[in-house]
């Protein structure tokens, strides 16, 4: 079904708004953020192009898209160089009650077939919901495209009545991962405070709240209970870096 002229007008306005922001970020040498905006704006313009019937407008749109794509390619080279120089830093701010931030959505662009080893440092993999968070994170790693063979978890040991529950839960996850050919190495530390995740392809992600940034579902049968993209989040900040040599933690 073809888009109406009004719909195309709205899409076109949205596209150029995003591309204007891309140019502003580009001029400020904020290449990583600019590239994201260029890509989003170009995708929106492509949608407008597909819905446009006027030949002249189509021709103009193709020229504009080509121009933005050329600039995006140059910006991508800048970001690749920053990554090589170890200067890459992207920050994502998750607002209170925001949705669309499942582990898959957050991590997928940093996972590829070269990822075989993962290090997770998070002091709060203790309570039932935190164990489930860790389990969901492991499920994401198993599904690919990465070929994970070893997962290292450094966390703190629950000192209360939940100690047995924590130990039992992590052991069950370990056994389950073993059935998929993946080794889970568990380490406990009473002094661990930082929260970070490292992949052996050089990416490092720091989340202010660790893996535990989802809110409790309203009920057992509410949307977001199973699909974490629909689960409201607590406010937190995600910092993403790239290092040529990922150190073990």
TrEMBL record:
UniProt keyword annotation of Transport present: yes
Membrane topology reported for the UniProt record: Peripheral membrane protein
InterPro entries xrefs: MIT_dom, MIT_dom_sf, MIT_domain_contain_protein1, MITD1_C, MITD1_C_sf, MITD1_N
Domain spans labelled MIT: 8-86
GO cellular component terms listed in the entry, alphabetical order: late endosome membrane; midbody
Family matches, as SUPFAM superfamilies: MIT domain (SSF116846)
GO biological process terms on file: cell division
Coiled coil: none
Keyword line: Cell cycle, Cell division, Endosome, Membrane, Transport
Localization per record: Endosome membrane; Late endosome membrane; Midbody
Spans traversing the lipid bilayer: none
Keyword Transport among UniProt keywords: yes
Quaternary data: Homodimer. Interacts (via MIT domain) with CHMP1A, CHMP1B, CHMP2A and IST1.
Family annotation (PANTHER family): MIT DOMAIN-CONTAINING PROTEIN 1
Protein name: MIT domain-containing protein 1
Source organism of the structure: Crocuta crocuta
Gene from which this protein is expressed: Mitd1
């Amino acid at each position: 079904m073809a888009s109406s002229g009004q719909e195309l007008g709205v899409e076109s306005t949205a596209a150029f708004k995003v591309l204007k922001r891309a140019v502003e970020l580009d001029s400020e040498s904020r290449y990583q953020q600019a590239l994201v905006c260029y890509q989003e704006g170009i995708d929106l313009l492509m949608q407008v192009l597909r819905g446009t019937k006027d030949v002249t407008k189509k021709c103009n749109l193709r020229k504009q898209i080509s121009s933005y794509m050329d600039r995006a390619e140059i910006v991508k080279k800048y970001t690749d160089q920053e990554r090589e120089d170890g200067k890459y830093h992207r920050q994502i701010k998750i607002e209170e009650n925001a949705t669309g931030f499942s582990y898959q959505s957050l991590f997928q662009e940093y996972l590829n077939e070269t990822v075989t080893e993962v290090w997770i440092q998070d002091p709060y993999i203790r309570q039932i919901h935190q164990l489930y968070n860790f389990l969901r994170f492991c499920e994401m790693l198993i599904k690919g495209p990465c070929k994970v063979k070893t997962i290292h978890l450094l966390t703190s040991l629950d000192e209360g009545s939940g100690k047995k529950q924590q130990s039992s839960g992590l052991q069950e996850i370990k056994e389950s991962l073993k059935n998929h050919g993946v080794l889970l190495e568990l380490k406990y530390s009473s002094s661990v405070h930082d929260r970070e995740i490292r992949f052996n392809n050089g990416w490092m992600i720091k989340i202010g709240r660790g893996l535990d940034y989802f809110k409790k579902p309203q009920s057992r049968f509410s949307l977001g209970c199973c699909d974490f993209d629909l689960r409201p989040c607590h406010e937190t900040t995600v910092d993403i870096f790239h290092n040529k040599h990922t150190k073990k933690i």
